[in-house]
Amino acid sequence: MDSDPLAPLRDAITRLWQAHGRETPLDGLYLTSVSAPAGPIHAVYRPSLCVVVQGAKISMLGDRAYRYDAGKCLIAALEVPIRAEITDATPERPYLAFSLALDPATIADLLLDPAEAVAIPPGPALAVHSLGAELLDPLHRLVRLCERPRDLAILAPLVRREITWLLLNGPMGPALRQIGLAGSPAARIGRAIAQIRDSFAEQLNIARLAEVAAMSPATFHRHFKAVTAMTPVQYQKQLRLQEARRLLLSDAADVARVGYAIGYESPSQFSREYRRMFGAPPGRDGVAIRKGLAPPTA
Questions:
Q1: How many CB atoms neighbour CB 19 within 10 A?
Q2: Dihedral sign of CA atoms 73, 75, 79, 84 in order
Q3: What is the DSSP string of 17-36?
Q4: How would you classify residue 75: left for phi > 0, otherwise alpha for psi between -120 and 50, otherwise beta?
């Protein structure tokens, strides 16, 4: 009789969730368990491997949709704002997933041919693939290590390195190789993304961002959209509005003050763009999320 290859990993994640919730004893390993469809969920994905072991989810990057269900993984090669929905979840069979942060330094250390990555043009920051049997084993071992505190600090770095090696030599290898090299086009776009993130409330300076990426403005704009499925202006707007929602969630801040804090000079423009993204004006949405009536931001 054929057994479910995901069952051991699913059981281990369930035990870990019951013991720790979202944050596990291993830095960079986060769990999700949801018992009903949910969304839209607005979040920022950082370089990571996201694995679904039960249920299904759709993540939107710009106008690109990525659907992944049990046995599929989503890889985020760069930091990007997304909109997601959990589409398959019940109390009896909750959506179960986990994400594992990817370390660019480890990727760089494992590269055998750095010149190969530099030559690859940047592709989309997200991709979905089937979870191969070769990855299931080390992923299961890594999750199980969280139940063995004495072994975790010594063995987890070795298993994470093994997982990174397998990813580099799998379907997402070309994209992952790029983020490990400072001179690759994707890594240079990543530096521009970090610049936008660190100063999202300031007026966008495309010439300065292109300089950070060591590209001409036209090349930078083309590569940025190829990676993120949005323009730098659209990217900044998503970061601004997600930060506005976080501020409204944390306290009953004045809507106009929140708008100014994230870089909007016009309260009406802020309210209009906030409503377009979240489906309700900021004042009403702030009340709803503080009462738990709206989906979480992550």
A1: 11
A2: negative
A3: HHHHTTB-SSTTEEEEEESS
A4: beta
pTM: 0.84
Amino acid 273 reads E
Phi first, then psi: what are they for 186, rounded to 5°? Answer: -65, -40
One pLDDT digit (tens) per residue for the chain, 298 residues? 358 899 999 999 999 999 999 999 999 999 999 999 998 899 999 999 999 999 999 999 988 999 999 999 999 988 999 999 999 999 999 999 999 999 988 988 888 665 555 556 667 889 899 888 899 999 999 999 999 999 999 999 999 999 999 998 888 787 677 777 767 788 889 899 999 999 988 999 999 999 999 999 999 999 999 989 999 999 999 999 998 988 887 766 678 888 888 999 888 999 999 999 988 888 887 777 666 654 443 3
* Distance of alpha carbon 227 from alpha carbon 96, whole angstroms: 28
